[in-house]
Every structure is written in structure tokens, then in C-alpha cells.
Specification:
Elements (H helix, E strand, L loop, with lengths): L15 H12 L20 E5 L22 H19 L3 E6 L1 H4 L4 H13 L3 E6 L14 H15 L5 E4 L9 H14 L9 E3 L1 H4 L3 H5 L7 E7 L8 H12 L6 E7 L16 H16 L2 E8 L8 E4 L6 E4 L2 H10 L9
Parallel strand pairs: 1-2, 1-8, 2-3, 3-4, 5-6, 6-7, 7-8
Antiparallel strand pairs: 9-10
Helix pairs in contact: 2-4, 9-10, 10-11
Length: about 350
């Protein structure tokens, strides 16, 4: 989850053949299960997704445990629960992508056997999965890789496990704000050189800083052929108009929209805001409308933060039903409308 530099954010949708075609259209896969993806440089609208997060946020000095899951869950239990959550993301929002956190505690230890159930359940349902490394919390939360001695073995395991699954995408690090733009580009280039068997069009290179601009990584020829991930949040400004938010977003993207996915953006969803109507005095409504209009206009994919995170006012979904058989409910239909609009569906804002 995106944090402000000063501290945490608010704690802070005829029969089998027709059904198969419909599911394929929503999921972004062919009926045979192959990814219907465009190469970087040709647009990123195939990524229509949400983040699924740990209730504590994804910065952790222990395994990340996603909302609705338990550290004690077996692989089978994790797979079963994740299958339902992923199905709910599709049913409620029309999503076809989920972004998931990892860290060395999750991958290098015993929990990896269970956590794989989330990735396996998602890809079995035709979802694209973006796997992203998150640093630790406390003193570790400084925008640097916590420990390269555990970082690279973590990626060795993840790449070995999923390099042949075309639905799994790799994001070497979330929000590398401790590094200069040049230092971060060096690390991203090192990741690509370390894993040459991974196709570049299955790598998301984070924008520099808090993933807050992609212009520098876009310009680096060593990173050619990768996707770029951008984060954008309304709380970065106390107030901006719709036009100001559009300009702010475009400046961070530069001429790189054809390779860029906004794999985090979000705003309050549980406070009753109506994102379907203009409200020029409201910063968050301006922000969400500006971002989703711009994503649609630039044919950019987006991955909302968060699709699910317990007790987060930004969460687009909430858990309902039995804990062993979870389902989801939408917290703000107007927010879901705007998400769909950014993905190229739905209706524009009504005056």
C-alpha cells in the first residue's frame, strides 16, 4: 500500500460456449487459456485489476498474509479461499488482474507452500498476477532492498516456480524511493540480467521514487521491452482541480503511456463519496475522475489500491460470508463505475 513520505496513509463485477466466451472477454485470455496480451509499446489496457493486501499493509517483517487468509491455512485452504476472492473480483468488478505482495519471509520460509495457492488459484481462473517485492516496516521501511542476501534467493524461487506460466508478471520492487533514479535503473537492469529467461514483457519496472514517475526508467535503453508501473494518489495534494490532476498524471507518465500500468491508485470508498457526478470542490472526486478519464484516453491499464484490504477506507471490496468460504461486496458502486470506465467500459460522469 502506498504511504505518504511522512507516514501511513489513512488506515487510511445459450450455454457453455457463450459462457466461455464471456469469461474469456472479461479475463483477457483466449478460450484456450493463452494470454491475450499486447507487447509493451502497444498499450496496456489488457491489465484491469486490483491489489489484494495484508490488513496491516504489505510492509512487514514477517510473512504477508492477505485479507481473508490465515498464516495457518494449508495450500488447499489457501487455494479454496483465494479461488472465491478472485472469482468475486471478476463478478463484482470485471477485473482480470490481481497484484500480490511478496517478501523473503513469505517466499524463503514454510509459508511459501501455502501462499502459492493464491497465485495458482488466480492463474487457474485466467487472471494475470503481478507479484511485487515489498520492503519491511519500521526501520526497514526506507525505500531500499532490506537484505540482498535474502532478496535474490526470494526472486530465484519465484522465477523458478512461475517463469513458464505466462499469466505471472514480476515487479522487482515496490516504491524504491530510497534510490536515485539512476541507482534504481541499475537495480532493475541487474534484475533483468539475472533472469534472462523471463520475457521482458512479463516484467514491471517500477517508476522511480514512490513509483511516482516513469519517465526515467522509460528512457533507459537497458529496460526496453518491459512494462512500467506508476502509482498515483489524491492525498499527495490537499486539493487540486480536475484539470490539475490530469496535468499532474500526464507529467509523471511523459510519453510512456503505451508501456505504463497504474498498478496503484485509490481514494476513500467507504465514506459515501459519489464518484459518478462532478464535485469540483472535492479533491478526491476530482482525482478519481481525472485519473480514470486519463487512463481510458491513453489506453492505460490500471490496478486499483486496494481491491481488498480489511479496515482500509480505500478498499473497493469487503469480505462477507463465512470465513472459510469468503465472498466480497462492493463498498462504493460509483467507485466501481469509475474503475470500469478507466478500463474502457461503462458510462461517463453525469453532470
Amino acid at each position: 500500500m502506498r504511504k505518504t513520505p511522512a507516514g501511513p496513509r489513512f488506515t487510511p463485477r445459450l450455454r457453455a460456449a457463450f459462457v466461455a466466451v464471456a469469461i474469456a472477454a472479461i479475463s483477457g485470455t483466449t478460450i484456450a487459456g493463452t494470454p491475450a496480451s499486447a507487447a509493451p509499446g502497444g498499450g496496456t489496457t489488457q491489465f484491469r485489476g486490483v491489489n489484494w493486501a495484508d490488513p496491516r499493509d504489505n510492509y512487514a517483517n514477517d510473512p504477508v498474509v492477505l485479507s481473508g487468509l490465515s498464516l495457518s491455512d494449508s495450500y488447499a485452504q489457501t487455494y479454496a479461499k483465494a479461488s472465491r476472492v478472485i472469482s468475486a473480483f471478476r463478478a463484482n468488478l470485471g477485473a482480470n488482474t490481481v497484484r500480490l505482495p511478496i517478501n523473503p519471509y513469505t517466499v524463503n520460509g514454510s509459508y511459501w507452500k501455502s501462499y502459492r495457492g493464491v497465485i495458482d488459484a488466480a492463474t487457474a481462473r485466467g487472471f494475470k498476477v503481478i507479484v511485487s517485492y515489498w520492503e519491511g516496516t519500521g526501520a526497514q521501511k526506507d525505500g531500499f532492498i532490506d537484505d540482498e542476501a535474502t532478496f535474490w534467493p526470494m526472486w530465484d524461487t519465484v522465477v523458478k516456480t512461475y517463469q513458464h506460466n505466462p499469466l505471472v508478471y514480476f515487479e522487482p520492487m515496490n516504491e524504491p524511493h530510497g534510490y536515485t533514479d539512476a541507482q534504481w535503473a541499475d537495480i532493475a537492469a541487474k534484475w533483468l540480467a539475472t533472469y534472462p529467461s523471463v520475457p521482458r514483457d512479463r516484467v514491471f519496472v517500477s517508476g522511480a521514487g514512490y513509483n511516482d514517475h516513469v519517465t526515467s526508467v522509460c528512457a533507459d535503453p537497458r529496460l526496453k521491452g518491459t512494462y512500467l508501473s506508476l502509482h498515483h494518489y489524491g492525498f499527495w495534494k490537499d486539493y487540486a482541480t480536475y484539470d490539475q490532476w490530469v496535468a499532474d498524471l500526464k507529467e509523471r507518465i511523459g510519453n510512456c503511456a503505451s508501456r505504463t500500468v497504474a498498478d496503484e491508485f485509490g481514494a476513500p470508498m467507504t465514506t459515501g463519496l459519489d464518484y459518478d457526478k462532478p464535485a469540483p470542490d472535492n479533491n478526491y472526486i476530482n482525482f478519481i475522475q481525472a485519473d480514470t478519464d486519463t487512463f481510458r484516453r491513453l489506453k492505460m491499464g490500471s490496478v486499483y489500491w486496494p481491491g481488498l484490504r480489511t479496515d482500509d477506507i480505500y478498499s473497493m471490496q469487503k469480505l462477507i460470508g463465512d470465513a472459510a468460504r469468503p465472498w466480497l461486496a462492493t463498498t462504493n458502486q460509483s467507485g466501481a463505475d469509475r474503475l470500469a470506465w478507466g478500463w474502457g467500459r461503462g458510462k461517463p460522469v453525469q453532470p
